[in-house]
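Support case: NAI complex. Customer-provided input:
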Amino acid sequence: MPSSPSSAHITWYRLNMTNKSKNYQIACIPADGIGPEVISAAVDVLKVLTDTLKTFSLEFTDLTWGSDHYKKHGRYIPEGGVESLKQYDAILFGSVGAPDVPDHISLWGLLLAMRGPMQLYANVRPVRSFPGTRAYLTSMTKPIDWMIVRENSEGEYAGQGGRSHLRQPWETATEVAIFTRVGIERIMKFAFEMARSRPAKLLTVVTKSNSMRNGMVLWDEIAAEVSKDFPDVIWDKMLVDAMTVRMVTNPHSLDTVLGTNLHMDIISDLAAALAGSIGIAPSSNLDPTRKNPSIFEPVHGSAFDITGKGVANPVAAIWSAAELLKWIGEAEAADILMASVERVCSKGVVTADLGGQYNTKEVTAAICEDIKENK
Ligand code: NAI
Ligand code: MG
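Agent response - structure generated as follows:
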């Protein structure tokens, strides 16, 4: 099984870090559904980690933004809320979405309302087979280790479009994808850097430039331009439909993968399922310029079907917390944390989504114990 994220990758994160103090301010936005259950697990683990290592400290501030706040006050984020996030070093986010609020209202009211103004344009989703998780594919002869990079600020999720002729038989809705040279270039450079930092030095750029003949062709052109600055990175391009086939039939031919907001939203869920469960999939919403704090969150949503039952897999949130540590400059602590998570999973201490019999609190407690035992 693969060990924790490659040291080369961590080195690159280290080079980009700006931390000066060893006391970091972390905002927690657990929000809705299983969000509070998994964020509380991640915070418990982080507290044990810092108490055990004693090399740095984390101060947590809970922000009660979410669908309850919306139902009471008519908005997800209080006035000036996004601006106030600048005082934190990083943000740990749960999930947003409630059964009695339309999903587009909740997503745009909270998560997208932060991602946009803070220009968190790089969504990074590491995907690895975990010990103790089952592989669905017979083609998976060895563990997978992918790094999915999703353009996170424009494309199909730019919010452009509108509705006309409401409730007429000819009611019309448009959803306009926008692709800018600035937006594509910055994410392309980020993905090439990411690929360069990993041992395989392999990047696959995913588009749909056969049928989408404008924005996707611009993506292809910029990929070719930017690649000239990265002669040491091998790169290829795939159409998104063919990409799904390659992920299933030839998973080991992939390493770093880049694509648009919509395409990678879907591809990364498929990747998470192939790796074992959405319950272990982490993500980072990064501002690579570091002008704004980045947001770290599990890929999964509110999971209404298991909310309040105490059975949610906390690994996605805990792995997201490890990604947060790497980003603020505490890569060694992130390694120690992930080694504990892997040891606990390999012992079969896993939740039901991974075929186990343990609940959220038991898995969290096992990870905390492992950190203390192996310090
Ligand atoms: P979902 O990820 O909430 O659930 C999909 C399936 O995966 C469910 O069967 C759920 O029980 C399972 N699952 C998810 N996380 C799990 C975990 N940690 N442990 C064990 N099983 C887990 O996706 P769905 O059902 O499409 O969306 C539910 C709500 O969440 C909607 O309101 C949606 O808009 C929102 N959502 C929010 C996201 C975010 O805040 N970033 C991302 C995805 C969905
Ligand atoms: Mg998704």
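The two ends are 22 Å apart (CA to CA).

Case will auto-close in a few days if no follow-up is received.
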